[in-house]
Specification:
Blueprint (H helix, E strand, L loop, with lengths): L15 H6 L2 H6 L8 E2 L10 E2 L10 H27 L11 H22 L24 H16 L2
Parallel strand pairs: 1-2
Length: 163
């Protein structure tokens, strides 16, 4: 539930995938061995180091639906963390600051204080509301490696169905 990395400085209208591609985390993840990956929602590109859910157009197989369910339940921790942060610092929900530099400092400061609170007090047992993702469209796989990356996700999907 701690925030390990934060990127600020992009206006609210910049897509999550673009912010991610321009982050230091993205550059580090590109060095990730092929048998490791992080989970991202449908706003992020499917890549060798980031697994996303299958796009649900109504034709998913039972295996793909199971993969999506396991993927989603694994990502709940991230959503709970963001919900906890916004619950403690309600101003972050509707930020309307004129000074971009100040706004970025307040966001980073809130994340730091969030981590300090967790270190000292732990996670409250109260219900943490998880907001619906505002991520919309699926982004195509980068670098023309879609077959290799899709095969990796399909392999994970098959292994999950065997469980």
């Amino acid at each position: 539930m701690k925030i390990l990395d934060i990127t600020t400085g992009h206006p609210g209208s910049v897509h999550d995938a673009r912010v991610f591609r321009n982050s230091a985390v993205y550059r580090q993840l590109q060095k990730t061995p092929s048998n490791f990956h992080v989970l991202g929602d449908s706003a992020y590109p499917l890549d060798s180091f980031i697994m996303t859910p299958y796009k649900n157009t109504g034709n998913l197989t039972a295996e793909q639906r199971k993969y999506n369910a396991v993927h989603s339940s694994s990502r709940c921790c991230v959503e709970r963390c963001i919900g906890l942060l916004k619950g403690k610092f309600r101003r972050l929900k509707n930020f309307d600051a004129q000074d971009d530099v100040l706004m970025c400092k307040l966001i980073v400061g809130s994340a730091v204080v969030h981590n300090i609170i967790l270190s000292r007090e732990g996670i409250e047992s109260e219900l943490i509301a998880v907001e619906a993702s505002d991520a919309g469209s699926d982004i195509s796989t980068s670098c023309g490696r879609s077959d290799i990356v899709s095969t990796k996700r399909d392999k994970i999907c098959s292994e999950l169905s065997a469980l």
